[in-house]
Design goal:
It contains eleven helices and eleven strands. The chain has 280 residues and is of the alpha/beta class. It binds zinc ion.
Amino acid sequence: MADSEALAPGVWPGGSRVAVSLTFDVDAEAGFLGDGAHYARRLTAVSEGRYGVTRGLPRVLAMLAGHDVRATFFVPGYTAELHPDAVAAIVAAGHEIGHHGHMHLRNDLASADEQRAEIERGLAALAAAGAPRPAGYRSPAWELTPETFSLLLEHGFEYDSSCMGDDRPYLESWNGNTIIELPVHWSLDDWPRFGWSIDHGGNVADPAELFHSWHAEFCAARDEERLVVYTMHPEVIGRAYRLAQLEKLIDMMADSGDVWFATLGQVARHVAPTLLGMAR
Ligand code: ZN
């Protein structure tokens, strides 16, 4: 990726110096059940996923409403099938719904046929739950493959948010084809901080670390006049003492007076003329 193919600074609406996208992956039960058939009888693990919808999501939606901020929610098809009311609540609040597979299968571990089924079943389930057709895609576990990359183009997705090749919007490419990439990073994800399982261990970090690191990245992005994408999971950030840190961060960002809180779809539409013009 040549540097000229990433977005130049100073391009945000209303004179804003920094664009901030809050994104939530509503993995819920699929986050466990898609990881292995053995989870079907592990009721405790699956209940932790369910908490993301029963407690985490309403808490997140209430907090965002209180700050008049719109976000992007990547919803697996299976989550939409189990919890159509959750999809309706997200849409009714004016947020964006993105595609996040169906059973949350890792694409790098799935066959080509399974990857196609993940895309097509996910689209059908979101539509059945009343969601608008998603413009964006985020690969489960951020594992994008050549097969799924091609499926995104085949199905007309406007952007992907799974890759890490820049910290500005850029064009991700494979085999001569490109898609607008709104990049992510593990350091801007709640899971590496708080994700813990009986099988793999993990962390239960001081929640203040999330605030300090993410605020530092916000300040850097503001200095560089670029986008920053934060990735969260309602079952993780939706614990009250953690969400309090996110709310504190939103308050400080808003106080800066020059932040554009935008869904990834809004960002993609804003950067498309510039990025796609560069590609010609
Ligand atoms: Zn996920």
